[in-house]
Amino acid sequence: MRLFSKIRDRGVSMRFLNYIIIGIAIVLSVLLYLVVTKTNSIYQETHEITQNLIRIREDSDDVMEASDYLTEQIRSFAVTGGRIYLDNYFKEVKVTKRRDNALEKLKKLSEDTTAVQELESAIHDSQTLEEQEYYSARMTIEGYGYDVSTFDETIRKYELKEEDRKLSAEEKKIKAIGLLFNDEYQKKKETIHSHTKKCLNRLLEAVKETQNEEASKLRKFVFLGHLLSIFLLITMLLIVLFASVFIISPMLKAVALIRDEKEVPLKGVYEMRFLAKTYNLMYNTHIQSKKQLNFEANHDKLTGLYNRRGYDYLLKNTDLETSALMIIDLDKFKEINDHYGHEMGDKVLKKVGDAIFSTFRSDDYVCRIGGDEFAVIMIHLGPSLIDLVKIKYETMSAKLQDGSDGVPPVTISAGVAFGEYRIGASALFKNADRALYSSKEAGRNTLRFHKYS
User: Fold this and answer.
1) What pLDDT is recorded for position 377?
2) Is the pLDDT of residue 141 over 80?
3) If pLDDT is split at 50, 70 and 90, which confidence band does 293 have?
4) Of these four, 114, 195, 321, 406, which has the most CB atoms within 10 Å of its CB?
5) How far is CA 54 from its chain centroid?
6) Cα gap 253→48, rounded to integer Å
7) Which has the minimum average pLDDT: 141-150, 288-297, 335-344, 423-432?
8) C-alpha 425 chain-centroid distance
């Protein structure tokens, strides 16, 4: 700013000076454009080589990762018997197909037949492991007593050897695990990794020389571009000083942030910072009030659970066909209020809400829909997990029978209905309510399932 003051004092026209600076900027911009164009051409060639190298690395890694993933899933199935692991295994083999896709990509990216042959060998070795893995899976299925007809047809066609069929269920489990953890299996895994590594090394050598040549050209033009950019940057800074960068720029940014309902950064001159502080204070007050009002509108004040309004909203926006609804009612709650008073009754309701909330998953929705009536929307839960629901009910009941906290023990009755095809919220509630009525008729303190009781 002092420099500009001296220029004005000496009678130099600011408009004339502005024209000179703009002329210099135009010349530098043209030169920089030519250099950048040439640099970009070299860069595109280098980039293509680098991208091919990256894709080659990724495709080679995909083979190892896919092989390791299959090993992890089949071993997990053998150790735990969890069907989800076998489903994951066949999804990789028949749907994702990372190994096959990687080979096809490499054949297009590289003309090096030796590298492709190494990768094909890795894939072949990985596929040979499948025979051993399929046999282990079949043995695991029989060891856990699954119905083999419900599994993939690839597994169904495998028959156990005569000596293996005579093994007990536990012996089958042990042998299934042994097939996946023995030295022979591990050696095949190491061979897969060895072939993949050789493939990658071969491809790296093929592109290294070309990449180095292009990189050398690129460095020269990048240096020239940097030099011109520095001169242009100096010129542009002189132009920028003609504008009020501490007012206009922060103001434009603040307007954009206010439109997007975001906080304004405390930058710029004092007045701008003062306005930003004032706005931020009002903005944060508004956001907190909005959050508080929204929470109170959808949550029960006593228990902190979703209230009836929140419950109705959740039912309306949940995939009921794959969910289940449990309705819970306290047994003889009126007697508790009459005997201990409403203050203790509120403590009982709070304890029941806490017991339900702590028993179910974080994905499930726990609601208080009436005075002593609660509901749990269990996401992605079908009739196959009916035993799990029973365990959760027993867990809740046990917690509520513990009176060591000074709250009198209570019992609960519950009814559960599972979602069905095209079922609505009203129908699902009626089914769960019928199941609850059935548990009440059975003498309370019990759990009943709609169509399963």
Assistant:
1) 97
2) yes
3) very low
4) 195
5) 25
6) 38
7) 288-297
8) 28
The number of residues making up the chain comes to 453
Of 399, 417, 423, nearest to 409 by C-alpha is 399
Place of tokens 């009459």: 338
d(CA 386, CA 418): 9
Give how far Cα 224 sits from Cα of 24, 237, 414, Å. 17, 20, 78
User: Rounded to whole angstroms, how far apart are CA atoms 26 and 426?
Assistant: 72
**Helix %, strand %, coil % of the chain (to 5):** 75, 5, 20
The label of the residue with tokens 């990216």 reads 109
- Residues paired with 122 in a beta bridge: none
Is residue 300 annotated as part of the catalytic site, yes or no? no
Comparing 76-80, 123-127, 305-309, 414-418, the range with the smallest average pLDDT is 123-127
Residue 70 contacts residue 133 (beta carbons within 8 Å): yes
* Helix (H) or strand (E) run with residue 376 in it: strand 373-378
CA 429, CA 418: separation in Å to the nearest integer?
10
Number of Cα atoms under 13 Å in the Cβ half of residue 272: 18
Q: Are 416 and 449 in contact (CB under 8 A)?
A: yes
Interval 216-266: pLDDT, tens = 877 787 887 778 788 777 877 766 665 565 557 666 676 677 766 667 776
Q: How far apart are CA 174 and CA 285, in angstroms?
A: 63
CA 448/CA 453 separation, integer angstroms:
5
Give the residue carrying structure tokens 């097939």: 179
Tell me, what amino acid is at 341? G
